[in-house]
Amino acid sequence: MDMCKWVADAIAADKKKAVPVLSFPAVQLMDITVKDLIGSSEKQAEAMRLVAQRCNTGASVSFMDLSVEAEAFGSEIVVSDDEVPTVVGCIVDEDSDPDDLKVPEVGAGRTGLYLDAIEKAAQEIADRPVLAGCIGPYSLAGRLMDVSEIMILCYEDPQLVHSVLEKASQFIIGYAQAFKERGADGIVMAEPLAGLLSPNLAEEFSAAYVKRIIEAVQTDEFAVIYHNCGGGVVKTIDSIKSNGAAGYHFGNAINMAEVLPLMPDNVLVMGNVDPAGELRGGTPESVAAKTAEILQECSKYPNFVISTGCDVPPMSPWENIDAFFAAVEKFYN
Questions:
Q1: Has this prediction a pTM greater than 0.90?
Q2: Which of 15, 16, 187, 209 is nearest to 118 (CA)?
Q3: Which of 66, 161, 169, 296 is the most exposed place for a label (fewest CB within 10 A)?
Q4: Is 132 exposed, middle or buried (0-12, 13-18, 19+ CB in 10 A)?
Q5: 270-295, pLDDT tens digit by residue?
Q6: Do residues 116 and 184 lie in contact, with contact meaning Cβ atoms separated by under 8 Å?
Q7: Residue 227 burial by CB count (10 A; 0-12/13-18/19+): exposed, middle or buried?
Q8: Are the C-beta atoms of residues 63 and 44 closer than 8 Å to each other?
Q9: For the segment 8-34, what is each residue's pLDDT rounded down to a tens digit?
């Protein structure tokens, strides 16, 4: 798919389609657990197909499972029936020799399943882009080194952090290239931990590596959507918008109306209905009201596309999800 044209068409459209990060709630439609889903490429592809069939989205966005890449490196993960997997512990600390950290082969662990799933989904979903999910470099390094410890080590041992980031970036580039080869039209690269960094640290330890990855993988036919759901987005917006992504996706920790004037008008800017507070914990009425509120504030910017602030939790009621899409349709009609 010509993704440059897709971006341009989305910006030019009078009536825009929502692009939420919506895949995990398909477990309810399929009557399976999250554990079942993440262990089967067939079930993942079916989940994406069912969501695309039910929801009038502008793109089919795969699972934001930020444990996959860390598990391939050797991290321990915790899997439950109803929640997205999480990483526990760390495999790199201040006493580690960075040379001991080996870059896994693309396809190691569950990355092979996710590649297979995208290939199957891309064969079945032909009316919109299929976007795979992957983690960003600093967020991957944080899972390998521990989220709190990496913040300290950015000051105390920056060379160690850079060594891990080099290997994380090398793997992400290969992983993204593999998604491209399997038929994906792009990736959503989730870099939430960068939202906790100061502007200077964000530039050094996140943006520099994000730019390198985007330069290596993004083409006219393969788009990178950069996701950051941290509260520090506005403060670090200069480095964020310079990374060259085709689109940007921001979380509900910020006000979309504040960030939109700061962004280039030729890239998509997406967000940011609260997925936990509203889609998971709200009511159809509150979801509709919040969706309409954001659209009212932000739709004057042609490059704004309504979305969720992050991945929609697996057990979010479908009544709330349907209310989100109904509110979008009502607004544009």
A1: yes
A2: 187
A3: 296
A4: buried
A5: 999 999 999 999 999 999 999 999 99
A6: no
A7: buried
A8: yes
A9: 999 999 999 999 999 999 999 999 999
Other Cβ atoms closer than 10 A to 13: 13
pLDDT tens, 69-120? 999 999 999 999 999 999 999 999 999 999 999 999 999 999 999 999 999 9
User: Which residue, 207, 182, 180, is CA-closest to 193?
Assistant: 207
d(CA 242, CA 264): 10
Secondary structure of 85-140 in the HEC alphabet?
CEEECCCCCCCCCHHHCCCCCCCCCCHHHHHHHHHHHHHHCCCCCEEEEEECHHHH
Which tokens in the block code for residue 237?
A: 């917006």
CA-nearest of 255, 265, 268, 326 to 297 is: 255
Cis peptide before 272 (omega within 30 of 0): yes
- Report angle CA 202, 204, 209 to the nearest 5 degrees: 95
Question: Any alpha helices (H) in the chain, and if so which ranges?
Answer: 3-12, 26-30, 34-38, 41-54, 68-73, 111-124, 137-145, 147-156, 158-181, 199-202, 208-217, 237-241, 256-259, 284-298, 318-332
Q: Using an 8 Å Cβ cutoff, are 22 and 51 in contact?
A: yes
